[in-house]
Design a protein that fits this description.
- Helices cover about 40% and strands about 30% of the residues.
- Helix 6 packs across helix 7.
- The chain has an 8-stranded antiparallel sheet with strand order 4-5-3-2-6-7-1-8.
- It has 2 domains: about 150 residues, no CATH class; about 60 residues, Arc Repressor Mutant, subunit A, CATH 1.10.10.
- The chain is an alpha+beta fold.
């Protein structure tokens, strides 16, 4: 089994019908898709996590002709939006891939810049390769991660808080765990707009938690 993470970047049209409006709004930041499924009538429902002003998000969703219905809830660390939508052409094509190919979509799906998504899937190598080959025109694919699937490591990752996972992912992306080390606490802090002390404390807790679980 392989674990493959790719960035999907629209070069024509959009994947998310309201991505551009949300990205353009100064108070809103798209974070992740916690759940997504396609209904029998071709529409889609998704649960998303977004930071920012509830009223601003509701206004964008209300104004979009593709949004059939929605509900926005305020949480301690942001907003959650349940959305029933008519998918864009690119979005519909991507949803069909999961039905056509036998792979597991690893949630949550991260939102990327410029209306893009960072999607991770688990499956046999040939299956994943065929699915990537079937990604429609108008979407550029960039490989983020390719590795053997290790369910034990995935379970360990699930023990982390969202903030810890964000810091760990950033540290990994910047090369903090490479040999020789390619990033410092200062680099990670600058990328996440955090203090170096906060980054250091989180990394120590992350590493202690991981090592403790592995030791058991």
């Amino acid at each position: 089994m392989r674990y493959v993470k790719v960035s999907l970047l629209p070069t024509a049209g959009t994947i998310d019908p309201v991505a551009e409006d949300i990205e353009a709004h100064p108070s809103l930041t798209r974070e992740s898709i916690l759940h997504i499924s396609r209904l029998n009538d071709g529409t889609a429902v998704l649960l998303t996590q977004i930071r920012g002003e509830k009223a601003a998000l509701a206004e964008i969703l209300e104004a979009s002709p593709e949004i059939i219905s929605y509900n926005v809830s305020s949480l301690r660390d942001g907003l959650q939006a349940y959305v029933h939508t008519e998918p864009t052409e690119a979005g519909a094509a991507l949803l069909e891939l999961e039905q056509e190919h036998e792979f597991v979509l690893d949630l949550p799906i991260e939102y990327g810049p410029e209306g893009g998504l960072k999607v991770a899937v688990i499956g046999e190598e040939d299956t994943v390769r065929r699915a990537i080959e079937d990604i429609p025109d108008g979407i550029r694919v960039e490989l983020e991660q390719l590795s053997d699937y290790d369910p034990e490591l995935r379970e360990l990752s699930s023990l982390l808080t969202d903030r810890q996972q964000e810091i760990l992912d950033t540290a990994t992306d910047l090369g903090y765990y490479r040999v020789p080390r390619e990033a410092t606490h200062e680099d990670i802090a600058a990328d996440l707009d955090l203090s170096t002390t906060t980054v250091g404390e989180h990394l120590r807790k992350i590493e202690a938690r991981m090592l403790s679980e592995i030791a058991h």
